[in-house]
Design brief:
This protein is 11% helix and 44% strand. With 399 residues, the protein is mainly β. The strands form 4 sheets. Strands 1-2-5-8-11-14-17-20-23-26-29-32-35-37 form a 14-stranded parallel sheet, with helices on one face. The protein has a 12-stranded parallel sheet with strand order 3-6-9-12-15-18-21-24-27-30-33-36, with no helix packed on it. The protein has an 11-stranded parallel sheet with strand order 4-7-10-13-16-19-22-25-28-31-34. The relative contact order is 0.05.
Protein backbone atom coordinates (compact mmCIF):
# COMPACT_ATOMS: atom_id res chain seq x y z
CA UNK A 1 0.00 0.00 0.00
CA UNK A 2 2.86 2.39 0.85
CA UNK A 3 4.49 1.67 -2.52
CA UNK A 4 1.22 2.53 -4.28
CA UNK A 5 0.88 5.83 -2.43
CA UNK A 6 4.51 6.67 -3.16
CA UNK A 7 3.95 5.98 -6.86
CA UNK A 8 0.96 8.34 -6.92
CA UNK A 9 2.95 11.11 -5.22
CA UNK A 10 5.83 10.74 -7.67
CA UNK A 11 3.44 10.81 -10.64
CA UNK A 12 1.75 13.96 -9.36
CA UNK A 13 5.13 15.62 -8.84
CA UNK A 14 6.13 14.73 -12.38
CA UNK A 15 2.94 16.32 -13.75
CA UNK A 16 3.62 19.54 -11.83
CA UNK A 17 7.15 19.64 -13.16
CA UNK A 18 5.88 19.43 -16.75
CA UNK A 19 3.38 22.29 -16.30
CA UNK A 20 5.02 25.67 -17.17
CA UNK A 21 5.11 28.20 -14.41
CA UNK A 22 2.94 31.32 -14.79
CA UNK A 23 4.32 34.69 -13.72
CA UNK A 24 1.64 37.17 -12.53
CA UNK A 25 1.19 40.10 -14.93
CA UNK A 26 2.62 43.43 -13.90
CA UNK A 27 0.18 45.65 -12.04
CA UNK A 28 -0.55 49.16 -13.27
CA UNK A 29 1.68 51.60 -11.43
CA UNK A 30 1.06 55.03 -9.98
CA UNK A 31 3.63 57.78 -10.51
CA UNK A 32 3.45 60.86 -8.29
CA UNK A 33 4.45 64.09 -10.04
CA UNK A 34 5.48 67.35 -8.38
CA UNK A 35 7.78 68.76 -11.07
CA UNK A 36 7.22 69.75 -14.70
CA UNK A 37 10.73 68.52 -15.53
CA UNK A 38 9.72 64.90 -14.93
CA UNK A 39 6.36 64.86 -16.79
CA UNK A 40 7.59 63.83 -20.25
CA UNK A 41 10.13 61.39 -18.74
CA UNK A 42 7.46 59.59 -16.72
CA UNK A 43 5.21 59.37 -19.78
CA UNK A 44 8.06 57.95 -21.85
CA UNK A 45 8.91 55.25 -19.29
CA UNK A 46 5.40 54.37 -18.10
CA UNK A 47 3.61 51.14 -19.00
CA UNK A 48 0.11 51.03 -20.50
CA UNK A 49 -2.48 51.44 -17.76
CA UNK A 50 -0.23 53.47 -15.45
CA UNK A 51 -1.53 56.58 -13.69
CA UNK A 52 0.32 59.85 -13.17
CA UNK A 53 -0.94 61.66 -10.07
CA UNK A 54 -0.14 65.33 -9.50
CA UNK A 55 1.01 66.30 -6.03
CA UNK A 56 1.51 69.97 -6.95
CA UNK A 57 0.47 72.52 -9.56
CA UNK A 58 2.40 71.99 -12.78
CA UNK A 59 3.29 74.51 -15.51
CA UNK A 60 4.63 72.63 -18.52
CA UNK A 61 6.04 74.91 -21.22
CA UNK A 62 6.78 72.57 -24.12
CA UNK A 63 5.08 70.06 -26.42
CA UNK A 64 3.79 67.09 -24.40
CA UNK A 65 3.72 63.92 -26.53
CA UNK A 66 1.96 60.69 -25.56
CA UNK A 67 2.44 57.79 -28.00
CA UNK A 68 1.76 54.04 -27.96
CA UNK A 69 1.11 53.96 -24.20
CA UNK A 70 -2.28 54.19 -22.47
CA UNK A 71 -1.97 56.78 -19.68
CA UNK A 72 -4.26 58.21 -16.99
CA UNK A 73 -3.41 61.61 -15.55
CA UNK A 74 -5.10 62.29 -12.22
CA UNK A 75 -4.85 66.00 -11.51
CA UNK A 76 -5.74 65.22 -7.91
CA UNK A 77 -7.27 68.65 -7.34
CA UNK A 78 -4.23 70.50 -8.70
CA UNK A 79 -3.75 72.56 -11.87
CA UNK A 80 -1.90 71.41 -14.99
CA UNK A 81 -1.07 74.16 -17.47
CA UNK A 82 0.40 72.99 -20.78
CA UNK A 83 1.52 75.99 -22.82
CA UNK A 84 3.83 75.90 -25.80
CA UNK A 85 4.95 78.03 -28.70
CA UNK A 86 4.71 74.83 -30.77
CA UNK A 87 1.92 72.28 -30.49
CA UNK A 88 0.79 71.79 -26.89
CA UNK A 89 -0.43 68.17 -26.58
CA UNK A 90 0.02 65.34 -29.11
CA UNK A 91 -1.70 61.97 -28.66
CA UNK A 92 -0.94 59.10 -31.05
CA UNK A 93 -2.05 55.44 -31.02
CA UNK A 94 -3.03 55.31 -27.37
CA UNK A 95 -5.78 55.99 -24.87
CA UNK A 96 -5.47 58.96 -22.51
CA UNK A 97 -7.70 60.27 -19.76
CA UNK A 98 -7.02 63.52 -17.85
CA UNK A 99 -9.33 64.35 -14.94
CA UNK A 100 -9.75 65.53 -11.39
CA UNK A 101 -8.53 69.12 -11.36
CA UNK A 102 -7.95 72.19 -13.50
CA UNK A 103 -6.50 71.69 -16.97
CA UNK A 104 -5.52 74.38 -19.49
CA UNK A 105 -3.91 73.49 -22.82
CA UNK A 106 -2.64 76.30 -25.04
CA UNK A 107 -0.49 76.68 -28.14
CA UNK A 108 0.48 80.22 -28.99
CA UNK A 109 1.50 79.46 -32.59
CA UNK A 110 0.05 76.05 -33.49
CA UNK A 111 -2.43 73.36 -32.37
CA UNK A 112 -3.58 72.86 -28.80
CA UNK A 113 -4.50 69.16 -29.20
CA UNK A 114 -3.31 66.92 -32.05
CA UNK A 115 -4.83 63.41 -32.21
CA UNK A 116 -3.80 60.66 -34.65
CA UNK A 117 -3.28 56.92 -35.06
CA UNK A 118 -6.76 56.05 -33.76
CA UNK A 119 -5.97 57.52 -30.34
CA UNK A 120 -8.73 58.32 -27.86
CA UNK A 121 -8.46 61.10 -25.30
CA UNK A 122 -10.98 62.20 -22.69
CA UNK A 123 -10.17 65.32 -20.71
CA UNK A 124 -11.78 67.85 -18.43
CA UNK A 125 -10.39 71.30 -19.13
CA UNK A 126 -10.10 74.10 -21.68
CA UNK A 127 -8.19 74.19 -24.97
CA UNK A 128 -6.85 77.21 -26.86
CA UNK A 129 -4.83 77.07 -30.06
CA UNK A 130 -3.57 79.47 -32.67
CA UNK A 131 -4.20 77.38 -35.80
CA UNK A 132 -6.46 74.71 -34.25
CA UNK A 133 -8.04 74.03 -30.91
CA UNK A 134 -8.50 70.34 -31.80
CA UNK A 135 -6.97 68.79 -34.92
CA UNK A 136 -7.50 65.24 -36.23
CA UNK A 137 -5.49 65.29 -39.48
CA UNK A 138 -6.24 63.45 -42.71
CA UNK A 139 -4.63 60.07 -43.52
CA UNK A 140 -3.32 59.61 -39.97
CA UNK A 141 -5.68 56.96 -38.62
CA UNK A 142 -8.32 59.23 -37.14
CA UNK A 143 -9.07 59.44 -33.45
CA UNK A 144 -11.65 60.21 -30.77
CA UNK A 145 -11.74 63.31 -28.56
CA UNK A 146 -14.08 64.06 -25.65
CA UNK A 147 -13.61 67.47 -24.02
CA UNK A 148 -15.52 68.54 -20.93
CA UNK A 149 -14.80 72.22 -21.32
CA UNK A 150 -14.45 75.01 -23.88
CA UNK A 151 -12.37 75.03 -27.07
CA UNK A 152 -11.11 78.13 -28.88
CA UNK A 153 -8.71 79.10 -31.65
CA UNK A 154 -7.75 82.21 -33.56
CA UNK A 155 -8.33 80.15 -36.70
CA UNK A 156 -10.26 76.83 -36.53
CA UNK A 157 -11.68 75.67 -33.21
CA UNK A 158 -12.27 72.02 -34.30
CA UNK A 159 -10.91 70.38 -37.44
CA UNK A 160 -11.73 66.69 -37.78
CA UNK A 161 -11.02 64.42 -40.77
CA UNK A 162 -10.32 60.75 -41.54
CA UNK A 163 -13.35 59.41 -39.62
CA UNK A 164 -12.45 61.31 -36.45
CA UNK A 165 -15.01 61.76 -33.65
CA UNK A 166 -15.11 64.88 -31.50
CA UNK A 167 -17.48 65.69 -28.65
CA UNK A 168 -17.21 69.02 -26.85
CA UNK A 169 -19.30 69.48 -23.72
CA UNK A 170 -18.84 73.24 -23.76
CA UNK A 171 -18.64 76.21 -26.12
CA UNK A 172 -16.54 76.75 -29.26
CA UNK A 173 -14.96 80.02 -30.40
CA UNK A 174 -13.11 80.34 -33.70
CA UNK A 175 -11.45 83.12 -35.64
CA UNK A 176 -12.46 82.08 -39.14
CA UNK A 177 -14.01 78.64 -38.57
CA UNK A 178 -15.88 76.99 -35.73
CA UNK A 179 -16.18 73.39 -36.97
CA UNK A 180 -14.71 71.54 -39.95
CA UNK A 181 -15.98 67.94 -40.35
CA UNK A 182 -14.46 66.36 -43.45
CA UNK A 183 -14.89 62.80 -44.72
CA UNK A 184 -17.33 59.94 -44.37
CA UNK A 185 -17.59 58.76 -40.79
CA UNK A 186 -16.25 62.02 -39.38
CA UNK A 187 -18.54 63.46 -36.71
CA UNK A 188 -18.40 66.53 -34.48
CA UNK A 189 -20.91 67.15 -31.67
CA UNK A 190 -20.96 70.31 -29.56
CA UNK A 191 -23.17 70.58 -26.48
CA UNK A 192 -22.91 74.35 -26.33
CA UNK A 193 -22.75 77.43 -28.54
CA UNK A 194 -20.48 78.04 -31.54
CA UNK A 195 -19.20 81.57 -32.15
CA UNK A 196 -16.97 82.72 -35.01
CA UNK A 197 -15.70 86.28 -34.92
CA UNK A 198 -14.05 86.71 -38.35
CA UNK A 199 -11.42 89.32 -39.17
CA UNK A 200 -10.55 92.01 -41.71
CA UNK A 201 -8.89 89.58 -44.12
CA UNK A 202 -10.39 89.22 -47.61
CA UNK A 203 -11.50 85.62 -47.15
CA UNK A 204 -14.46 83.54 -45.96
CA UNK A 205 -15.66 82.81 -42.45
CA UNK A 206 -17.48 79.58 -41.53
CA UNK A 207 -19.51 78.68 -38.49
CA UNK A 208 -20.01 75.01 -39.44
CA UNK A 209 -18.51 73.20 -42.44
CA UNK A 210 -19.39 69.61 -43.37
CA UNK A 211 -17.75 68.13 -46.43
CA UNK A 212 -17.36 64.75 -48.11
CA UNK A 213 -19.88 62.94 -45.89
CA UNK A 214 -18.96 64.58 -42.57
CA UNK A 215 -21.66 65.23 -39.97
CA UNK A 216 -22.11 67.94 -37.33
CA UNK A 217 -24.55 68.41 -34.44
CA UNK A 218 -24.68 71.61 -32.36
CA UNK A 219 -26.95 71.63 -29.34
CA UNK A 220 -26.87 75.41 -29.03
CA UNK A 221 -26.73 78.58 -31.14
CA UNK A 222 -24.32 79.29 -33.99
CA UNK A 223 -23.25 82.93 -34.45
CA UNK A 224 -20.96 84.17 -37.22
CA UNK A 225 -19.81 87.79 -37.46
CA UNK A 226 -16.84 89.74 -38.70
CA UNK A 227 -15.92 91.74 -41.75
CA UNK A 228 -14.54 89.24 -44.26
CA UNK A 229 -15.89 89.17 -47.82
CA UNK A 230 -18.19 86.21 -47.18
CA UNK A 231 -19.65 84.76 -43.99
CA UNK A 232 -21.24 81.31 -43.89
CA UNK A 233 -23.27 80.00 -40.99
CA UNK A 234 -23.52 76.45 -42.38
CA UNK A 235 -21.66 75.21 -45.45
CA UNK A 236 -22.32 71.60 -46.51
CA UNK A 237 -21.22 69.96 -49.77
CA UNK A 238 -19.84 66.70 -51.26
CA UNK A 239 -16.12 66.35 -51.89
CA UNK A 240 -14.27 64.03 -54.29
CA UNK A 241 -17.39 61.94 -54.85
CA UNK A 242 -18.15 61.48 -51.13
CA UNK A 243 -21.52 62.83 -50.03
CA UNK A 244 -24.11 62.39 -47.29
CA UNK A 245 -23.25 65.47 -45.22
CA UNK A 246 -25.66 66.13 -42.38
CA UNK A 247 -25.76 69.22 -40.16
CA UNK A 248 -28.18 69.65 -37.25
CA UNK A 249 -28.37 72.81 -35.17
CA UNK A 250 -30.71 72.64 -32.19
CA UNK A 251 -30.78 76.39 -31.73
CA UNK A 252 -30.64 79.64 -33.70
CA UNK A 253 -28.31 80.57 -36.56
CA UNK A 254 -27.20 84.21 -36.94
CA UNK A 255 -24.83 85.46 -39.66
CA UNK A 256 -23.94 89.17 -39.94
CA UNK A 257 -21.20 91.60 -40.89
CA UNK A 258 -19.68 90.36 -44.16
CA UNK A 259 -18.47 92.98 -46.64
CA UNK A 260 -20.07 91.23 -49.60
CA UNK A 261 -22.36 88.27 -48.84
CA UNK A 262 -23.82 86.56 -45.78
CA UNK A 263 -25.13 83.00 -46.07
CA UNK A 264 -27.11 81.46 -43.27
CA UNK A 265 -27.23 78.02 -44.92
CA UNK A 266 -25.45 77.05 -48.12
CA UNK A 267 -26.25 73.39 -48.82
CA UNK A 268 -25.26 71.38 -51.88
CA UNK A 269 -26.72 67.86 -52.05
CA UNK A 270 -26.69 67.75 -48.23
CA UNK A 271 -29.18 67.70 -45.35
CA UNK A 272 -29.37 70.64 -42.95
CA UNK A 273 -31.86 70.93 -40.07
CA UNK A 274 -32.13 74.01 -37.84
CA UNK A 275 -34.70 73.98 -35.07
CA UNK A 276 -34.66 77.72 -34.40
CA UNK A 277 -34.45 80.96 -36.38
CA UNK A 278 -32.09 81.81 -39.24
CA UNK A 279 -31.11 85.51 -39.37
CA UNK A 280 -28.79 87.25 -41.83
CA UNK A 281 -28.02 90.93 -42.31
CA UNK A 282 -25.46 93.67 -42.71
CA UNK A 283 -23.95 92.68 -46.08
CA UNK A 284 -24.61 93.79 -49.66
CA UNK A 285 -26.41 90.46 -50.22
CA UNK A 286 -27.95 88.34 -47.47
CA UNK A 287 -28.98 84.76 -48.25
CA UNK A 288 -30.69 83.08 -45.35
CA UNK A 289 -30.93 79.74 -47.18
CA UNK A 290 -29.47 78.55 -50.49
CA UNK A 291 -30.01 74.94 -51.59
CA UNK A 292 -28.63 73.18 -54.66
CA UNK A 293 -28.97 69.80 -56.39
CA UNK A 294 -30.73 67.35 -54.01
CA UNK A 295 -30.16 69.33 -50.83
CA UNK A 296 -32.78 69.20 -48.09
CA UNK A 297 -33.07 72.11 -45.67
CA UNK A 298 -35.57 72.24 -42.79
CA UNK A 299 -35.95 75.40 -40.69
CA UNK A 300 -38.12 75.18 -37.58
CA UNK A 301 -38.31 78.90 -36.82
CA UNK A 302 -38.41 82.25 -38.61
CA UNK A 303 -36.11 83.34 -41.42
CA UNK A 304 -34.67 86.76 -42.26
CA UNK A 305 -32.94 87.02 -45.63
CA UNK A 306 -33.32 85.69 -49.14
CA UNK A 307 -34.37 82.05 -49.66
CA UNK A 308 -33.37 80.38 -52.93
CA UNK A 309 -33.35 76.87 -54.36
CA UNK A 310 -32.69 75.17 -57.68
CA UNK A 311 -32.91 71.78 -59.37
CA UNK A 312 -34.27 69.08 -57.02
CA UNK A 313 -33.49 70.78 -53.73
CA UNK A 314 -36.13 71.05 -51.02
CA UNK A 315 -36.57 73.85 -48.48
CA UNK A 316 -39.20 73.77 -45.74
CA UNK A 317 -39.72 76.65 -43.29
CA UNK A 318 -42.14 76.32 -40.39
CA UNK A 319 -42.10 79.99 -39.39
CA UNK A 320 -42.31 83.35 -41.11
CA UNK A 321 -39.96 84.77 -43.73
CA UNK A 322 -38.83 88.35 -44.22
CA UNK A 323 -37.11 88.50 -47.60
CA UNK A 324 -37.38 87.27 -51.17
CA UNK A 325 -38.47 83.64 -51.58
CA UNK A 326 -37.99 81.59 -54.76
CA UNK A 327 -40.75 79.41 -56.19
CA UNK A 328 -40.92 75.89 -54.83
CA UNK A 329 -40.04 76.78 -51.24
CA UNK A 330 -42.53 75.55 -48.63
CA UNK A 331 -43.34 78.25 -46.07
CA UNK A 332 -45.93 77.42 -43.41
CA UNK A 333 -45.99 80.94 -41.99
CA UNK A 334 -46.07 84.31 -43.71
CA UNK A 335 -43.81 85.81 -46.38
CA UNK A 336 -43.26 89.52 -45.75
CA UNK A 337 -46.44 89.54 -43.68
CA UNK A 338 -48.65 87.74 -46.21
CA UNK A 339 -50.08 84.33 -45.41
CA UNK A 340 -49.12 81.48 -47.75
CA UNK A 341 -51.35 78.81 -46.24
CA UNK A 342 -54.45 77.44 -47.95
CA UNK A 343 -57.34 75.98 -45.97
CA UNK A 344 -57.04 72.20 -45.96
CA UNK A 345 -60.83 71.72 -45.85
CA UNK A 346 -63.85 73.60 -47.10
CA UNK A 347 -65.88 75.54 -44.51
CA UNK A 348 -68.62 73.43 -42.96
CA UNK A 349 -71.96 73.55 -44.75
CA UNK A 350 -74.81 75.45 -43.13
CA UNK A 351 -77.40 73.35 -41.32
CA UNK A 352 -80.44 72.59 -43.53
CA UNK A 353 -83.66 74.58 -42.97
CA UNK A 354 -86.19 72.04 -41.67
CA UNK A 355 -88.60 74.49 -40.06
CA UNK A 356 -91.52 73.46 -42.30
CA UNK A 357 -90.81 69.72 -42.21
CA UNK A 358 -92.86 67.34 -40.06
CA UNK A 359 -91.07 66.05 -36.99
CA UNK A 360 -90.97 62.43 -38.17
CA UNK A 361 -89.36 63.52 -41.49
CA UNK A 362 -86.49 65.67 -40.18
CA UNK A 363 -83.97 62.86 -39.62
CA UNK A 364 -84.32 61.20 -43.05
CA UNK A 365 -84.43 64.64 -44.71
CA UNK A 366 -81.15 65.61 -43.04
CA UNK A 367 -79.49 62.43 -44.36
CA UNK A 368 -80.92 62.97 -47.86
CA UNK A 369 -79.70 66.60 -47.97
CA UNK A 370 -76.23 65.55 -46.79
CA UNK A 371 -76.05 63.14 -49.73
CA UNK A 372 -77.16 65.79 -52.21
CA UNK A 373 -80.55 64.22 -52.97
CA UNK A 374 -82.64 67.33 -52.20
CA UNK A 375 -82.04 70.43 -54.39
CA UNK A 376 -81.46 73.62 -52.38
CA UNK A 377 -84.53 75.43 -53.75
CA UNK A 378 -86.83 72.61 -52.51
CA UNK A 379 -85.49 72.47 -48.98
CA UNK A 380 -88.11 74.88 -47.57
CA UNK A 381 -91.21 73.56 -49.39
CA UNK A 382 -91.92 70.46 -47.35
CA UNK A 383 -95.63 71.28 -46.82
CA UNK A 384 -96.26 72.49 -50.39
CA UNK A 385 -97.93 70.38 -53.06
CA UNK A 386 -95.21 68.85 -55.20
CA UNK A 387 -95.31 69.42 -58.94
CA UNK A 388 -94.51 66.84 -61.59
CA UNK A 389 -91.34 68.73 -62.52
CA UNK A 390 -90.16 68.83 -58.88
CA UNK A 391 -90.89 65.11 -58.49
CA UNK A 392 -88.83 64.35 -61.58
CA UNK A 393 -85.90 66.41 -60.26
CA UNK A 394 -85.96 64.49 -56.98
CA UNK A 395 -86.23 61.17 -58.79
CA UNK A 396 -83.27 61.95 -61.06
CA UNK A 397 -81.08 62.87 -58.07
CA UNK A 398 -81.69 59.41 -56.58
CA UNK A 399 -80.71 57.52 -59.73
Amino acid sequence: MKKKILSLVLAFALILALVPSVTPSAQAANHNLDSADMLQHIINTAQSGDTITLTADINYNSLLAIKNTDININLNGYTLNIKSDMGALSVDNCKVEIYGGTLNIESTTNTALWVSGGAKITLTGNLKGETHGIFIPDRNGGGTVIVNGDVSSNNSAVTATDGGKVTVNGNLTGGYRGIWSDGRGTDVTVHGNVRVTGSNLDDSTFGVSARGGGTVTVNGDVTVSGSRLRNYGVFAAPFFGESGEKVTINGNLTVTGAKQTNWGVNADNSTVTISGDVTTGGAEVNFAVSAYLDAKVIIGGNVTGRVSRNQNSNISIDGNVIGEVNDGVTVKGTINGESQSTPDTEPPAEAPNLDTASGWAKEPLTAAIAKGFVPADLQDKYQDTITRAEFCRLAVSWV
